[in-house]
Structure formats: structure tokens, C-alpha cells
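pls design
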């Protein structure tokens, strides 16, 4: 349940707030690109630190989670009600984003770690991750449709404030339920003092996880490009701004509808091959965006729905796979650090995608919510459609190599050999 308000906060935080600050508060597109690149790189770099501190002080995990909720709430409040006190818009936006994204990271890293190691059964881990990500999708569904509903009766500024109050109510309910869960669940194995903390972040990247993390990074970059550009694409290319909420709703509801399918498929084949199928499916569907012309609302809606089918696998399977790999490597004492890296990678991908996309659009003279040149519109189309498909296909190649070298059927043997010194 705690995943629901956190996910609800993520959509306006990463999509609606940047658009509002550029369109209504006069923050330039180039400046926005630089700020988002800097803020998200900072946010990405701090994730392994959050993971390290959470592993170093596991007895205080509940307090760490609470601090994350507080920071996220304060950051969202500042972002949606600012700027205030005659502070420069760029400074206020950057500071608010840092607060909110830091809190977001603290909650997500620790919540994923608890979900990953609540059960020792690998199939149960996938089931837990699937339910958590289902609540994530419910949060995204509400966040995708609510702005359009609010804009029917108020302006953009008041709509953002309305989103905050809905988030706040959801978070209070979720936190109360989470405290009840903590009283009932046996998590003592997660809260014991850790002694094997020694390996730092870069050593995690240097072991057998490198190819897995590279695969995950490529999938996240491929997902981030459409995420940061969807409002521009729908409003300025398709000329269908009023349908933005519907498109997001179709995408997320189809992801929620097929979430359990990926759980079944991962048990039938294995988690790696199920993830590979989802990658190839998303490329086969989303590549057709490149053929869309302004006004192709129905065709784009169908693409949103079909590409959403692969979303559940991207959300649930990587978190479950890394738990299995940590367990096979006997690295439970550094589990939260691994999840810190897992949180670091989407932030790095988002920083790369948003910084590069905004700077490239600015370089070709793209104008937000205005008439643009043919060159600017083609650049937007290529960044939104073709680039993600190429990157996702590269991720599929990396995953296929991973399956052949370190897949589910032989990773335990490999890690056992490492422990015994034979590799």
C-alpha cells in the first residue's frame, strides 16, 4: 500500500511539475534541462549512500523510512505551492526537487529491500514484487487521470495543489497501514546488525552483476525518454492535449491487467526469459509511433495500451531477479546497497534522458506549447519513438547474453564456484 502514494507522487514530480514550471512560470527549456540533469545526477549518486546507511543502521530502518516520507512530503509541498519568498524560480525548483527526490529514494530503496527479503522463496519474491508494483500502477493510474479531471474545473496551479492534498491523504492512510504491517510481520532477520558492510558501491558494480546492471540501465533509459517527452509529444505533435490523461490511463491499466501474467510466465520459463519477451514486445509495439501523424489519436491510444502490456515485467521482474542474485552470492548483509544501485540506475537514466532530450530540443529551437518548425517536430518524434526502441533492443541483446552466461539455471552454480574459489 505504501507504494501507491509514492508512485502517485512520482508522476507529477517527474512529468507535470517540469512542464508547469516551463509553461506557466517562465523557466526556459534549456535551463530546465540543465537543472533536471544536475538534480537527477545528484539524486542518483545519493542512492548508494542511502543504501549503505540503511544497511549500516538496520535497527533504525523504520525511522529512516519515516524520514523519507517527511522529505518527500515537504519537497512536494514546496514544489506544488512555490515559488515563495521572492526566491528565484530556478533555485526554488531545484531545491524542491532535491528534497522530494531524496525522500522518494529513501522510501523506495527500503521498501524494495523489505519486499525482496521478506520471504526466502524466489517465486514468492516475484509474487510480492508483483503485488507491490500493482499498487504502484494503481498510484500511477490515479495520478495519470486526476490532473485532467482537476483541470476541468480549475487552472494548472490549483490542480497541482489538489494533487498534493490527494497525495497527502493517501500517504497518511498508507503509513498507518504500514505501521500495522511492521507490528505483525517478522522482519527480525532484516533488522539485525550487519558486520559484512565492507564492499563499497563500486565493488558491487565490479562483480558478476555488471551485465545485469547494464541491461537494467538500458531499459530505464529507453523508458525514460518517452516519460519525459510524452506531454510535449501529445500536446505539440499529436495536438491532443486533452487526451493526455486517457493515454496514460490506457498505458498503466493495461500494465496492471497483465501484471500476474508475467508472474505466471516467469514460473513457466524463468524470470530472465519472461523479461526478454517483454522487451521484444515493447519494441515491436512502440516502433509504430514513428509512423503517426498529427491527429492520430486512436492509433496512439492503441499503441499505449499494447505497449503497457510489457510494463508489469519491467516493474516486477528486475527487483525479484536482483534478490535472487544477492541470495545466490550470499550478500544479504549488503542487500539494501544493491537496492540502492537499483534505485540509482533509473535516476541516472532519467537524468541522461531528460538532460539530453531537453538540450537537443532547445538546440533545434523547439518551443513549448507553440508553433514549431518541421525540423523541431521531427527531432521530437525521433527522440520520443525511434531512440527508445533502439536502446531497448540493445538491452534485449545484453539480457540474452546474460541468460547464456549467468542466467537463472546456472547463476547459483557460478556463485557457489566463486565462493569455493574455483572461478
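designed seq:
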Amino acid at each position: 500500500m505504501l507504494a501507491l502514494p509514492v508512485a502517485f507522487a512520482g508522476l507529477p514530480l517527474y512529468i507535470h511539475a517540469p512542464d508547469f514550471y516551463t509553461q506557466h512560470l517562465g523557466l526556459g527549456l534549456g535551463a530546465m534541462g540543465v537543472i533536471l540533469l544536475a538534480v537527477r545526477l545528484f539524486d542518483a549518486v545519493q542512492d548508494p549512500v542511502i543504501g549503505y546507511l540503511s544497511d549500516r543502521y538496520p535497527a533504525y530502518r523504520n525511522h529512516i523510512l519515516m524520514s523519507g516520507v517527511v522529505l518527500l512530503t515537504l519537497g512536494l509541498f514546496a514544489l506544488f505551492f512555490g515559488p515563495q519568498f521572492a526566491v528565484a524560480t530556478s533555485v526554488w525548483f531545484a531545491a524542491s526537487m532535491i528534497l522530494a527526490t531524496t525522500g522518494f529514494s529513501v522510501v523506495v530503496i527500503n521498501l524494495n529491500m523489505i519486499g525482496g527479503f521478506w520471504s526466502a522463496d524466489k517465486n514468492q519474491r516475484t509474487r510480492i514484487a508483483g503485488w507491490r508494483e500493482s499498487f504502484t500502477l494503481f498510484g500511477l493510474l490515479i495520478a495519470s487521470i486526476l490532473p485532467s479531471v482537476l483541470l476541468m474545473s480549475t487552472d494548472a496551479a490549483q490542480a497541482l495543489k489538489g494533487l498534493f492534498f490527494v497525495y497527502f491523504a493517501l500517504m497518511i492512510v498508507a503509513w498507518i497501514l504500514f505501521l500495522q504491517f511492521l507490528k505483525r510481520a517478522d522482519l527480525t532477520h532484516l533488522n539485525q546488525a550487519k558486520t559484512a558492510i565492507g564492499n563499497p558501491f563500486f565493488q558491487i558494480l565490479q562483480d558478476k552483476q555488471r551485465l545485469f546492471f547494464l541491461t537494467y540501465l538500458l531499459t530505464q533509459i529507453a523508458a525514460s525518454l518517452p516519460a519525459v517527452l510524452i506531454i510535449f509529444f501529445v500536446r505539440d505533435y499529436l495536438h491532443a492535449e486533452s487526451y493526455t490523461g486517457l493515454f496514460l490511463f490506457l498505458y498503466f491499466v493495461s500494465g496492471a491487467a497483465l501484471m500476474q501474467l508475467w508472474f505466471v510466465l516467469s514460473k513457466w520459463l524463468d524470470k530472465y526469459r519472461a523479461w526478454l519477451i517483454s522487451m521484444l514486445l515493447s519494441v515491436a509495439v512502440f516502433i509504430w509511433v514513428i509512423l503517426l501523424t498529427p491527429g492520430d489519436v486512436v492509433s496512439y491510444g492503441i499503441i499505449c495500451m499494447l505497449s503497457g502490456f510489457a510494463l508489469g515485467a519491467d516493474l516486477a521482474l528486475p527487483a525479484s531477479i536482483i534478490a535472487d542474485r544477492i541470495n545466490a552470492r550470499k550478500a544479504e548483509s549488503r542487500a539494501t546497497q544493491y537496492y540502492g544501485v537499483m534505485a540509482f540506475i533509473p535516476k541516472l537514466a532519467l537524468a541522461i534522458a531528460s538532460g539530453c532530450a531537453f538540450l537537443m530540443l532547445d538546440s533545434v529551437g523547439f518551443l513549448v506549447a507553440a508553433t514549431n518548425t518541421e525540423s523541431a517536430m521531427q527531432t521530437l518524434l525521433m527522440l520520443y519513438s525511434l531512440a527508445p526502441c533502439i536502446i531497448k533492443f540493445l538491452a534485449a541483446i545484453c539480457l540474452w547474453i546474460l541468460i547464456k552466461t549467468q542466467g537463472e539455471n546456472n547463476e547459483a552454480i557460478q556463485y557457489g564456484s566463486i565462493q569455493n574459489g574455483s572461478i
